[in-house]
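Appendix B.2, paired examples.
Example (i):
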Amino acid sequence: MKDRIIISIWADPTNYINLLFLINYLIKKKQKITLICKFIEHKEDFFYFIKKSKNLKVIELNQNGKIGFFYFLITKIVSFFKTRPKTVISINFISLFFSRFLYNKNINWIYYNFDFDISKKLLLNNYIEKKIIKKVDCIFLPSKSRVKFYKKIFFRKNKIFPIYNCFSKSFKIQNYKLKKIDKKLKYKNYLVRLGSFYKHHYLKELALKTKFWKHDKYLVMAGKSYAGYFEEMIEFKKKNNLSKLILLKDISYKKWFILLNNAVAGFALYKAINVSHNLMGGTSQKLNNYIFAGIPSFINNNNDFIKFNNKFETSIIVQNSLGDLNRKINYLLQDKNYYRKKIKKNRSAFIGEFNFEKQIERVKNYILI
């Protein structure tokens, strides 16, 4: 009889690469999985990562607000009593909160937190989390630095493990013609910034830098838009006459990975507004896209990124004001030996450390019990 696992997340799981690779891993290990999640907006992106299997049941919820929370709880309860799981994996706080109503000391309960913060608006959530995690068997967090910080803030000392947000060694990019995305694009004639269109990511500052580029490369920004920020960027481009900037909204993973695979370099820039943005070293999904693709990246001058880059040398540190960015881009493009060195360092980092197989190895015995 296959072991049964319930995974629940109050979000579209397609945005969490480690969760997708975890599901694939569990399918390969012949586990029977029920995934309870919010509506998956783009099914083709979900199945770009996930192999279809009779051992995976996906229950999507299309409701929001209090009604959505009610359906989330009821669905978890019904699934719990139908499947009688051996393991329950709660992704992020909301799932943890509702999972507490199903607590059973005979169930292996894992809390996987991708994104916590200690801002004032989350004081109540964090107080509740401190209480609930006393009953959780083990906790996964996206990096060693976040584990250290979490232990200090949430008073949990044991069975907390880092799992960096990494790609699997077996992940394959599907073929797609770059010209279909934009006719101006061709192999290695652009730098890329993949990720959400939203404030706090230096998008406007980065876009303005292209106005003073003295090389023939483009900058491609692509990803999902929040709060109308893509449209804001379109207006910003027009206002500042940014001819080297290409903006792409809500692209599929098929296009995303072709853009990634043909780029010169990437950007993983974060304004220091919360815990996550301050502790992105080695675990930023943007950064790990670039490591997987074997291309160098430009990252912030903060302690966590500096510590990461001192060890792995995959990236180029830039001032938080981006004042030195263009100079460092030019140096990367002009010095071929330096560029090749960075490519080699990224490939080495992926093979040696930042791959899903290496990450899951340290926690597999806590999942497959």
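Example (ii):
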Amino acid sequence: MNKKLKTIITKAKTRLGVFMVLVSFAASLVITTNPANAGNNAIDPVEPVACSDLGVLQWLSYNVVGGGVGTTLEYGEAKKLTIFGASAGDYESFDPVWTLQYGGHQISEINAVAINPIDDIVYGVARMINGDSWLVRFDMEGDIHFLVPHSGSISGAFDSQGGFIARRPNALSKITETHALDGYATPASYVAHEGNQDTQDVEIDIGGFEMDGNDLVIVEIDGVEAAVWYDGDGHQRVVVVEGVNTATRTVQSYDVTGQVGGGGAGAMYTFVDGEVYFSLNSGNGFYQFVYDTSTPYVTPILASTEVTGYNDGMNCTTEPSPLPCAFDNSLLATDPNCAAPLEEESETPPATTTTQPPATT
């Protein structure tokens, strides 16, 4: 190679390097001002949680401040259940604390909180001061995105495809692929960009079965996804809606009277192996619903918990359960030796009712 040609190549490389730096800088500006999950707003992105170290959480709203339609609260905080030791059953704050102030967003309360298994981001239903409800996503830094209008709910969970399934008075509802929804800084900015669209909140018919549960989870039973909740306000029963994402659904109600303390369950959980847990707001225990037997039943995991209100459970459903084995508390639920004793499966079956809703979606 002659010296002149080498000089030309060197200059070309230098100019290309400068060009690439400028392109990279321009791209970084675009990313900074227009996050992928932030719609057309210049708002900060909502960050995922670290699922591998999250555990069993409650989202708790505090301090009634009045005003607005219904009860208005000051802020929400995520707290982690203490599972072992002298403080078992208490909820501990994160360090630094994970809070979201409601007033600046015109929110009265956030409930129906769940973590999407597709993006590991926290979602919930925000009840606004004006009475409207919105599906939102938010993070530990206090960032929040308004996604779409919602019919309102205090119970919500995700299916395996990122569909958000929530409770209605006599049905369920679903918003598909929530992880793909653009986020907006305010409801007004959503309306300005999207217009007054339908809520995308599609009803799932369950034959008019009475919905009295305060939280729900989605698990797989016999190869299809099922919604599960505990109704402890007017009954003592666990309700299972098999085929929640199919045209044909079966609703079964298991009477667990005498197996559970008093009060409703404002927090429910499930993990990667399909365990179903619920915590009573009254503090009267934390339980597991054992459904993969011929005789489903409820058994205690923790004898008592901290009393809660204005709350909802959340956890990463793709992680293993961190809780003790329901049948031997010297083991973890993930231990291969954690198995139901045979006598548990031979108990008298609880009363069960089944309804078959129409084959519609």
